[in-house]
Amino acid sequence: MTFLKLVVRNLLRHKVRTLLTVASVLVGIFLMVLLRSLDSSLVAGAAAAESDRLIVQSAVSLYVDLPLSYQAKIASLPQVESTCKWQWFGAYYQNERNQFGQFAVDPEALFDIYPEVEIVDGSKEGFLGNRRGCVVGEQLITRFDWKVGDTIPLIGSLFPHPDGPDVAWEFQIEAVYRPTTTNFDRQTLFFHWDYFEKTLDPRGTTPPGMGTLVLQVAEGVEPTEVMAAVDAMFENGPQRVQTTPEDEFQAQFISMFGNVPLFLASIGGAVLVAILLASVNTMLMAAREQTYDIGVMKALGFSDGRMFTLLAAQSMVLALAGGGLGIAAAVVTQPGLADLIAPYLPTQYVVGTGTLVLAAGIAVALGLGAGAVPALRAGRLRCVEALGSTE
Amino acid sequence: MIRVQNVTKTYRRGAETLRVLDDLSLEMERGRFFALMGPSGSGKTTLLNLIGGLDDPDSGSVVVDGVDLGSLSGAELSAWRAQSVGFVFQGFNLIPVLTALENVELPLTLAPLSRKERREHAEYALELVGLKDWARHRPKQLSGGQEQRVAIARAVATDPKLILADEPTGDLDRDSAEQVLELLGRLNRELGKTVLMVTHDPHAAEHARSIVHLDKGKLGTVGETPIPESTGA
Amino acid sequence: MLVPLSYNVRSLFVRRASNLLTVLGIAATVAVVSGVLALQQGFANLYAENGRDDVGVLLRPGATYEGYSAFTREEALKLMKSIPELAEDENGAPLAAMELYTAVRRFKRDEGETNVPVRGVQPATFRVRESEFSIVAGRNFEPGSDEVIVGKSLLVRVPGLEVGDVVPINVTPFRVVGTFACEGPHESEIWGDLDRMIAALDRRGPSRIVGVLRAGTDPEALATRLADAKETPAKFQTERAYLSAQTAMLSAILGLLGTVLGLIMGLAAVFTATNTMISALASRIHEVGILLSTGFRPFPIFLSFLFEALLLGLLGGVVGTLVVLPINGIETGTTNFQTFTEVAFAFRVTPAVIGTAIAFSVVLGLFGGAWPAWRAARLTPTQALRRH
Questions:
Q1: Which chain B residues are closer than 8 Å to A293 by Cβ?
Q2: Using the 8-state DSSP alphabet, how is residue A240 labeled?
Q3: Which of A150, A188, B189, C179 gives a 20 to 30 Å CA spacing to B95?
Q4: Is residue A53 part of a domain?
Q5: The whole model's pTM is what?
Q6: What is the extent of the structural domain holding A204?
Q7: A247 occurs within a structural domain
Q8: Domain-embedded: residue A272
Q9: Can you tell me the distance from the alpha carbon of A363 to that of B222, in angstroms, rounded to the nearest whole number?
Q10: Does ipTM surpass 0.85 in this model?
């Protein structure tokens, strides 16, 4: 008959209560991991971006396009190895609520400058060879049940089809990509610039502008040098530019979330407090009912220290069980949740090991904190009083 | 074996202060069966608790088998209790979540025994009280008398020199009470244990060898029961 | 007969510590849910309350919002003249204006950047907005000049927009000459002269047309007519419909967040409440026996304990609401992802939020107490009175 057996038996004595306590710790830890993962997923976008990729955008804001002529001028700089233009397309699939990124790009340059775009279905050559082709993110395939070979109609909102606002732009899925890094968007549709430009402006009189130009800095060149050179080139217009490293460019999107991460963090904190209170409550109630037993054991010769350890262990087992299950639940639901959240957030929902370690730590702290009061009480309980108690 | 010297104990209840034991001195020999009797409030349970190291006096000393209980620290007292004393209470006090055997084993976990040795000692103690077949039963599956006998088995499991019993038959019917008292008697006669039993029942006290009377915290008469001619039952 | 309510009220005080902890657990749940709802209400109300039914918004067909819409100047003028439903001013000109919508990237007072909406307006805009708009500092800009006025909500969140500061837009510096107030999302905008803005940004024309509608105009009919028009097609909405559509996504996200949090935390709170009630009843099992033997029937006893749980929930709801009330009116802001621009608003703890919070807490209490109360009521007197 071991100590652990006594701990477990005591906990199983009131199965319902134990179950409920474990369940509430489970829920609390799960929620804490969920919120923290949301928070860190939101800010993860800026991390680990390539430092030798620069983004050229209008100095005003992304609402303003840059003239196409800028690309040739920038590409002619010796410090610039390659360039790729991007234009946000702003269309929707089937109904206005189905939002995801679509970009007209320089198709070959895209793959050159972004090696993390890995083709997992279809073929890159198929895409490059078909002017009306597109390459889509894996998550779009699951979200809309598409497959390679499908023709996707998109209703243009920013760029309505010249034949009429209800006429759809049609793209054929030639390839599916999966990014090898976590901060590249998983549900974007890329298509040919040529097709974009020729459809909008068949006679070449008023070509569209480009939203951003991505450039790959030549090896050994200091990025800040290039940034200064490009900005200086267009100091006097017609559109002033701002060239930034890619991580700074991403950061502007993150910072637009403003207080949301703080908000999520405080919710997480409030949740933890509520769960701690609940657990303390339960442990205290359970401990009070054990007062008599504690008196008996002390009479038998169990020391104060052993009684302290018994009660502390009971709390720890509950906290670890609930915490462990909560962590498991968070890990198991991660893929499902990632798909569910994808339409609403620009970044991938990921549960990081750091968060899980923190959650485990919190579960342990919970066990210690919630068990402290009952354990101390058990340790200090005077045998005679305990035996006199009728609880 | 037991020497109580000038012991005083007071309790505060609300605004009142009760002097439960008043400058009490007493000596008890080894290997005897004592009954502690007296009206309620006479301090007999308190005296038992002091001798068992469950409580400490306001003044005076308690020495058991050469050990001055007042000189021991809390942890030492616990260890001493585990080794030297076996308790039997009126309310049986078995741990409800453990089986009979596990209850008996409980104090043995404090001794430096291997798991096998512990189990053997516990089984032996249960057999001693005649409940070997009930080893796997939980307290709620046992009758009152059986529970008390398990409690006695628990008390002797560590082979202590001293058995302290507080109204052990108070909650039992006549037949079960008789069984328990006989058991205590056997522990005293056959195993040589010193037994101190608090009781208010004169019939129960007949099983003891010496009767100590307490009244209002002071020692009253100390008498001896005549040894019965036949030692049956 | 029913068990006296005072019995339950007094019983709550007996086990003060555990009941207090339960109440706090429910209060925390309620506070969090209320906070999220207050955020959602603040955001939604900013748009929903301030959309006018008598003002119409015209966009290019197919555009989902003005940021995506563009007309040439000629198209816009032609369109304005072709709509008799527009009210007229005293000179017989339509009470309508062309507007350009764009954004300028600025640093925020706290970390990071944001896109501040910039609107190029015409003098007619001020006539359309007469009832809502006022200058609160400095003066309005001179038409045709490189001056701008700034909405007062922006000043809290974005530095460098005070009267006298300069806002560069492309290569043209615009000087801030005043601060304005205007109920609704416009208060987070910078306004300047339409033509100067178009020139500074090298654009072809405005983004949209706004105008006051004549009384009795049927918006649906007008929308259909303009959608089908051959010469000057346009997408028409009342301002109210237009603004409501802007908030749809963020409102939905916040609503979803509030619901999910409420369910999950509520679950944990119910577990706590159940635990408390079970334990409370376990120690009062003797009392149940006495009630039963006195003559109270099981169902009233069930109701009685349910009432006690309800009280716990209600207390939790009240405490939670009190905790959340101070955030009412706190200014915050975020990027509205549909428009990709900054919008400032305040938390609003509306009666609806409070009502939802209290109702939620009562439900939590009821769920928590139902099962223990039912178990207690099912005891027979002998079971309950037996000492253990």
A1: 95-96
A2: -
A3: B189
A4: no
A5: 0.76
A6: 60-239
A7: no
A8: yes
A9: 61
A10: no
